[in-house]
Design goal:
The protein has eleven helices and two strands; from the N terminus they run αααββαααααααα. It has helices at 11-24, 37-44, 48-60, 80-91, 96-118, 121-139, 143-161, 164-172, 174-188, 192-210, 214-234, and strands at 64-67, 71-74. Strands 1-2 form a two-stranded antiparallel sheet. Helix 10 packs antiparallel against helix 11. The protein is elongated, with a radius of gyration of 22 Å.
Length: 248
C-alpha cells in the first residue's frame, strides 16, 4: 500500500479560503474595501507576504481588485483576468476557431432569444450604438473599428439577456470570443460586399429583438454564425492555428 506524506498547507491558501467564505456568506460585499495589509496580517497572524500572495491569487480569479494607491476592493466575481491568463492555452489549439463557432451557436442563439423576451431598454441602446459604429466603420473603411463594434454588439446581446449564468459563461470565453470575431471578420471582409452582409445580419438580429420575436432573433443569430462558419471552412488559412487575437 502506497501512502504519500501529508504536506503542510501554505498559509496563503488558508487566508484565501477565509476570504472566499466571507464573500460567499455575504459578510464581504462587492465594492467593500479591505483593510490594509498590515492590519490583515495581524488579524490572520501571518506575514504580510502571505497576505500579498493570497491577494495576487484572489485578484487573478476575479474576487478582488487591487487599485494602486487606492486600496483593495471586493469585486462582483470578475473572472476576466483569470480567463486572460489561461486564454493562450486554448488559442494554440488548431481547431479553436471552429470549436468557438460551435460553442457560440449554442449560447448566443439562446442569449438573443432571452434578450428579445426581456426587451431591456439599456441593452437595446447598447446594441444600437454598436450597430451604428459598425456602419460608420464600413463608411470610413476602418476594419479594426468594425471588428471592435462587432465584438461590442455580441457582448451587448449577453448583457441584454440579463441572465447571470449566460453573462458569466460569456466572460469565460471573452478573450477567445474576441479572437474569434476578429479572425473571422478579417477573413470575411476581404470582399467589401461581405462587410455589408455582416452589417445586414446584425440589423436582422436587432430588428427581431426590438420586435420581441425570440425565436426569430435566435434564427437570425444562428444564420449569422453559420455564415461565419461557412466562411471559415472555405478559407484555407483556417487550418492553421492562431495565437494572436489581433490577427488582422
Amino acid at each position: 500500500m502506497k501512502i504519500d506524506p501529508v504536506s503542510t498547507r501554505r498559509l496563503y491558501q488558508s487566508v484565501m479560503d477565509q476570504f472566499i467564505q466571507l464573500i460567499s456568506s455575504g459578510q464581504l460585499q462587492p465594492g467593500d474595501r479591505l483593510p490594509a495589509e498590515r492590519d490583515l496580517a495581524e488579524r490572520f497572524a501571518v506575514s504580510r507576504a502571505s497576505i500579498r500572495e493570497a491577494f495576487r491569487v484572489l485578484e487573478i480569479i476575479g474576487l478582488i481588485e487591487i487599485r494602486p494607491g487606492g486600496g483593495t476592493f471586493v469585486t462582483n466575481l470578475n473572472i476576466g483576468p483569470f480567463i486572460k491568463t489561461i486564454a493562450p492555452l486554448f488559442i494554440r489549439q488548431a481547431s479553436i476557431e471552429q470549436d468557438l463557432l460551435d460553442f457560440r451557436l449554442l449560447i448566443e442563439a439562446e442569449a438573443v432569444r432571452i434578450a428579445a423576451d426581456k426587451h431591456l431598454p439599456s441593452g437595446l441602446s447598447d446594441l444600437k450604438k454598436a450597430l451604428a459604429a459598425m456602419e460608420q466603420a464600413i463608411e470610413d473603411d476602418a476594419p479594426d473599428l468594425g471588428a471592435e463594434a462587432d465584438i461590442l454588439f455580441h457582448q451587448a446581446v449577453f448583457a441584454c439577456s440579463d441572465n447571470y449564468v449566460l453573462a458569466k459563461a460569456a466572460e469565460c470565453v471573452a478573450c477567445l470570443l474576441e479572437n474569434s470575431v476578429r479572425l473571422n471578420r478579417a477573413r470575411i471582409i476581404k470582399d467589401s460586399s461581405q462587410a455589408r452582409a455582416l452589417l445586414d445580419q446584425h440589423r436582422s438580429i436587432l430588428a427581431a429583438i426590438e420586435a420581441r420575436q425570440g425565436m426569430l432573433a435566435a434564427q437570425a443569430m444562428s444564420q449569422h454564425l453559420e455564415f461565419a462558419q461557412a466562411t471559415l471552412l472555405a478559407d484555407p488559412a483556417s487550418a492553421k492555428p492562431q495565437t494572436n487575437g489581433d490577427s488582422q
